[in-house]
Amino acid sequence: MPAYTMPGLMTGQNTNDIVKKLVELERRPIKRWETENEYAKMQIQIWGEVKNLTTNLQTKTRALVSFTAPFATKSVSSSVEGVITGEASRAAKSGNCSLEIIEMASKHQLSGVEIDTDIRLPEGSFTVYSGKSKETVTFPGGGLSELSSAIKNMAGSLVETSIIKIDKDSSIITLTSVKTGKKNELQFSDPNGILKLAGLVGENKAATEDTKQLLSLDGTKAKVWDLSKFKKSELETEKIVQTEEGIFLKPDTAYTIPIAVTEIKERSYLEVEVVGEGPAVMEMGMSFEKEGSVRNKFLPINKTELKYIFQAGDIASDKNLTGIIVSNSATTPIQIKSVTLVTPQAPGTAEPVKVLQEAKDLKIKIDGVEITRETNDGIADVLEGISFNVHKVTEEPVTLKIHVDHAKGSALIKEWVDAYNDLMKFSKEVTSVEKNGKISDKKESDDSKAADISRDFWDNKSKSGLLAGENSILRLIASLKTTANSYYPATKENGFRVLTDIGISTGAVGSNWEKIQDGLLQIDQEKLIAVLSENPDGVRDLFASDPNNDAKMEEGVGIRLLEILKPYNQYASGIVTSKVKLLEESVAGNNKKIKEHESHLISFEAKLKQRFLYMEQGVGKNKSVGNYLQNNMFRGNGGE
After folding, report:
1. Residue 635 domain-assigned (yes or no)
2. Which residues form the Flagellar hook-associated protein 2 N-terminal domain (predicted)?
3. In sequence order, what E strands does 426-559 have?
């Protein structure tokens, strides 16, 4: 558009400048909406951080109140470093005992003799046994490498293999059991002579028959077993009857019968023969000596044809059998004809040529009692609540120490305190108020179109938190302080009622009052470690307890804190989610207004330019007419 000037008030002003100024005045609502959006987006970020901090505190609190919280975790160590490592549960009793490692459990290691490296072995099959497991290897034929690969692929769960090259012409193949322990020693059946040609075993022998030992049961020495379940056993009319045909058991009776001490070999089983049909399932058991005391094992067994099989070797291998437990839970009498201890022969029919290391059990002494186990690791059935690993033989007895491990509980509480303080500090910062500041959003002109958030507002907002006066955050701060300073019922003797009892407070005696009022928690580490070592269950109950004994945690610092935090973090209708949703809706509404107003400004600017064009054209015409009249009037006067 060409630049024209207007008379009067507009004389000397460029039309484009005037239009630009008018459009800028009309644009002021957009600036207000953009400022509101900027403010809302900052609030959304703040609410997002509130959610992160409350969720973090929620997570740390749940860790404290869970049943697996490690307040009472105990550790296992030895007076000589490196002998033993392990962990102890809450059930373990603190204290010391004497420990002696006599012999470590070892793997079974075998070696073949030197053979031609280029030997070709025939196809066929052989079987590898270790413990209760066996694997049959089908070999397609080939050299030592092919044999080694076949063993790895088909029997790798039982045995490891390697080939050692002695010189350019000869090699040796070695085998090592995967598991330690005497029971897991390697045995072989080699009907096709493959392992013999490989130099690993000798001649394959024919399998031998099982050993059977008929046990003598004297019913006159029988004693009642489990009277609470088999109620008629004590009645004189229902007692066990023994004849030449065997033992008669009447319904709802059970007895334990002593026998001559007999060793239970590996894979041994008790074979019980009855007369007649007999029940489909019969309960029986045995008594055996283990670690200086008599143990009992009683369980249901299924019938196979007319016999019942009880796997004694699986339960008490290499232990002494001292008694047989028989019972009748059926409605009709049972006649037991015989009980036989059957010991199968070793499955291996081909003896190894060379043993590099025998398979051995772990042998240890605890307080003078000798104990054997198959493995050196994860021994969890010797001391109650304790699992340990053995690492080396001791030259003399060492002390096994079981004591409370306060490190885990202390770390867990420190993480909780840090999460609590992070939330408290952030909440106070975003709700802080500058006492001398004056927050106002009024300008000299409060016209609805021209109104804007003043610089004074933002100046004061920089001194105050963006959520100053937000009731939900102020309530959160107050609730956190109340929870941390409340008393709680002690459900156990010598329990703790307040956080200060375990070394957690808002400040030591004599601390600055303003800092105490801030509500931030501090830890007296020495005191916390002391109470965790002496009374870990009391610490845990302070955070979560069950005063009603209804198996539901209802009291404690952690339980109350979770109740306070729950409404803030609920997914659908939580306080934070609702606040963010409202702010996002406000931003979306302002964006819509901005878009609509920008469209209006384009039309508004076009109209202004058109109007000023008409005005300038009119002014131009009037100026031309005025000049014409002035010239004609001048000529007329001159003529007179």
Report:
1. no
2. 12-108
3. 504-505, 522-523
C-alpha triplet 452, 456, 462: angle, nearest 5°? 110
SS3 assignment, position 180: strand
- Give the side-chain half-sphere CA count within 13 A for 449: 6
Summarize the confidence of residues 578-590 as an average pLDDT: 84
Answer whether 310's CB lies under 8 Å from 283's CB: no
Instruction: Say yes or no: 63 and 121 in one domain.
Output: no
Angstrom distance (rounded) from CA 319 to CA 286: 12
pTM of the model: 0.55
pLDDT at 209 over 90: no
For residue 330, the model assigns a pLDDT of: 87
* pLDDT one-digit tens code per residue, 333-391: 999 999 999 998 888 889 999 999 999 999 999 998 888 899 999 998 888 888 899 99
- Residues in CB range of 9: below 8 A, 6 or more apart: none
Counting other chains too, the contacts that 614-623 makes at CB distance below 8 Å and 24 or more residues apart are: 615/6, 616/4, 616/6, 616/15, 619/4, 619/6, 619/7, 620/4
- Phi, psi angle pair for 506, to nearest 5°: -90, 5
Into how many domains does the chain fold? Answer: 4
Beta-carbon contacts of residue 165 (< 8 Å; ≥ 6 apart):
117, 171
Please tell me whether residues 466 and 561 are part of one structural domain.
yes
Q: Can you tell me the distance from the alpha carbon of 201 to that of 336, in angstroms, rounded to the nearest whole number?
A: 44
- Domain range holding 561? 42-68+408-432+458-568
- CA–CA distance, 277 with 300 (Å, rounded to integer): 17
Which pLDDT tens digit goes with each residue over 37-48?
888 888 888 888
**Cβ-Cβ contacts under 8 Å for 156 (sequence gap 6 or more):** 178
Q: Strands (DSSP E) along 106-146, which ranges?
A: 107-111, 115-116, 124-130, 133-139
Shared domain for 469 and 546, answered yes or no, is yes
Which residue is associated with the tokens 């209760």? 132
Mean pLDDT of 208-234: 90
Mark whether 169 and 265 lie in a shared domain: no
CB 367 within 8 Å of CB 237: no
β-strand partners of 357 = 109
425 with 563, same domain: the answer is: yes
d(CA 7, CA 5): 7
Same domain, 167 and 188: yes
Q: For 612, which DSSP code?
A: H
The confidence score (pLDDT) of residue 443 equals 41
Between 458 and 492, where is the model more confident? 492
The rounded distance, in Å, linking the Cα atoms of 419 and 568 is: 16
